[in-house]
Amino acid sequence: MSTTPFPDGFLWGGATAANQIEGGYDQGGKGLSIQDVMPKGIMAPPVEAPTPDNLKLEAIDFYHRYAEDIALFAKMGFGVYRLSIAWSRIFPNGDDAEPNEEGLAFYDRVFDELEKHGIEPLVTISHYETPLNLARKYDGWVSRDLIGFYERYVRVLFTRYGARVKYWLTFNEINSVLHAPFMSGGIQTPKEELSTKDLYQAIHHELVASASATKIARELAPNAQIGCMILAMPTYPFTPDPQDVLKSLHTDHSNLMFGDIHVRGEYPGYALRILREQGVELDITDEDRETLKNTVDFVSFSYYSSVAESADPEVIREGKGNLFGGVENPKLPVSQWGWAIDPVGLRVVLNQFWDRWQKPLFIVENGLGARDELVEIDGRKTVIDDYRIAYLNDHLVQVGEALEDGVDLLGYTTWGCIDIVSASTAQLSKRYGFIYVDRNDDGSGTLERYPKKSFDWYSEVIATNGASLSR
Ligand code: BGP
User: From CA 234, how far away is CA 301, in angstroms rounded?
Assistant: First the structure.
């Protein structure tokens, strides 16, 4: 048996989010979420009410097809499946006094299917799915009231599912509020009108709520492992000019601050300087400071690409990436959506995070969005996605290198293990899955599922615990 750096019990799987996979946007008592009024993703301002061009209203109909999809994940050998619970399925308006039993029962059925196949659920509590009423009535996380609504929500989740869900993430990519305040923080005030004070106050409220969830879990779900989740985008200095190195450090700091607060339990000095220099005096109470001391058990993150950083205002910034970019790196190829492809960057991030926090890590998003062509071979429809196999193989080889570097890594869930609606562009044509879903950007299609070539490839990687990777 060839050797592998992946430890026994390593959790292999895939990840999705309720708003991008479920559909059933108005079924089972679900209230509207901000996603139901974002037909174009973050590429356009939200609309007044759901419109037929919003692919997320039906998405790929996981709401009705979850058993079929989970059976396909089991066929690949998944040990873990990351999903989110749609907050507005449980509290339709976010500020309801009582939860919606039909919504709770839906996730009971999903967890039943996962248990049937021996797949661990990894649950994101809030994945860009703030109940629309909380955005409209309170301006999202700008309001301190959201801490109480979120605490009510997590108490229900930990009470109902705490015995059957071991891994929990409090917020998806909590640092993305800096870049997409409506999608990430439910903040109705347009980004260009949002004061820096309100933005950082909203972030503070989320950080307190996240730590409060950890505290509540200790009480209601003592076996649960609570993780924070950040968007990792390592920045490389564009030149060895110390000013570029310093600029890269500062850009990294703006994202690492969120992990630092979740792991250390307080604002680090550089974060206090960021606030000071932006003239922000946070409304932070002694109780907030006590709550923040409830630190996480592990750190999870998404990784798609790296970006370069320059202190020179003349250097053009056309580097693209997940929710934000920087200076394009001429040493790296890019995806069809312009995101740099940098497998070594994943090893860099794993080492950076392990060195910094000495907490177990979990890669909960990594994948390649691409335009796939459905073909028919021997009467069977499929996709020859060698480009996706190459992307994932090369990134997993670097994960293996990081494990050899001594990093403590719990698992790896590829993003979009089945084709789903993209977050930033709200397209279905930006496909990530091992399973093709017959639905197009114009809403047409049968919703049939067809395993791609990468389906068997990933099944082999899992079966051999990484030994089958091409190094
Ligand atoms: C992250 C989100 C995911 C997923 C991913 C890929 O920000 O956590 O929900 O969507 O981005 O991005 P996209 O779907 O825009 O290609």
Answer: 12
Task: Report how far residue 216's alpha carbon sits from residue 293's, in angstroms, rounded to the nearest whole number.
Answer: 13
CA-172 nearest atom, ligand 1: 8
Active site residue 290: no
Cα separation of 367 and 384, whole Å?
16
**What pTM does this model have?**
0.98
Domain boundaries, the chain: 11-463
Establish whether 365 is a catalytic residue.
yes
Identity (one letter) of the amino acid at 170?
A: T
Nearest residue (CA) to ligand 1, atom 14: 422
CATH number for 11-463 (one of 3.20.20.80, 3.40.50.300, 3.90.180.10, 3.30.930.10): it is 3.20.20.80
Pocket-forming residues, ligand 1, beta carbon under 6 Å:
17, 20, 172-173, 302, 322-323, 365, 369, 415, 422-425, 430
For residue 82, the cross-strand partners are: 15, 122
Check 173, 309, 328, 401 and give the catalytic one. Answer: 173
Angle between helices 196-220 and 242-264 (to 10 degrees): 40
| Residue indicated by tokens 């106050």 | 201
User: What digits encode the pLDDT tens for the residues 315-357?
Assistant: 988 888 888 889 999 999 999 999 999 999 999 999 999 999 9
> For 9-46, what is each residue's pLDDT tens digit?
999 999 999 999 999 999 999 999 999 999 999 989 99
Tracing tokens 């290198």 back to the chain, one arrives at 401
**184, 230, 255, 422: which to mutate for ligand 1, most atoms within 8 A of CB?**
422
